[in-house]
Amino acid sequence: MIWKFALILFAIGGISHIIFGIMYVTASEFMPYHAQALNVDWNGLGEHYKTLFLALIRLAGVGGLVAGIVNLALISHLYHHAESRLIWLLIVSSLIFQSMMNYVVYCVYVNTPGDPPLLMVSIGSVTFIIATILLLAGVRGQHA
């Protein structure tokens, strides 16, 4: 039962990645904390900069969409069939994207005047770590 709770935590993380992805893929300009980090308004940028920033923002958004969709697909399968290789794929794919998100947001927070959502991203990271521990403990308990 504990491993099903862990899957629910992974699903919450996957849904948050999809929401992040949708926000970034559909963005028509950078986020307010990007403007703070650069100390420039979107309208103050030249067209080449706007194109470059939107491309990078949308690339990050697609990463979130892919990470979230893969996460939810794996959870859907694992809910009924606990397969070791898929459990590890869920853990690794979730933690890689979340860790990179945490690293990037932390770098912006520390190195710029921007105020990115560090607390929210950090809570997501902690949630994935707890979900990983619970999942491994739950699956191990099932096979003990």
Give structural notes.
The protein has 144 residues and is mostly helical. It has one domain (2-143). Helices cover 81% and strands 0% of the residues. It has helices at 2-25, 32-38, 47-78, 84-111, 118-143. The chain starts with a helix and ends with a helix.
Estimated radius of gyration: 17 Å
Order of helices and strands: HHHHH
**Beta-strand segment tally:** 0
List low-pLDDT spans.
none
- Provide the domain count: 1
Structural class estimated from helices and strands: mainly alpha
Largest sheet: none
Q: In terms of quaternary structure, what is this?
A: single chain
Count of DSSP helices? 5
Give the overall pLDDT as a whole number. 93
Helix fraction, binned, reads over 70%
Q: Approximately how much beta-strand content do the residues carry?
A: under 5%
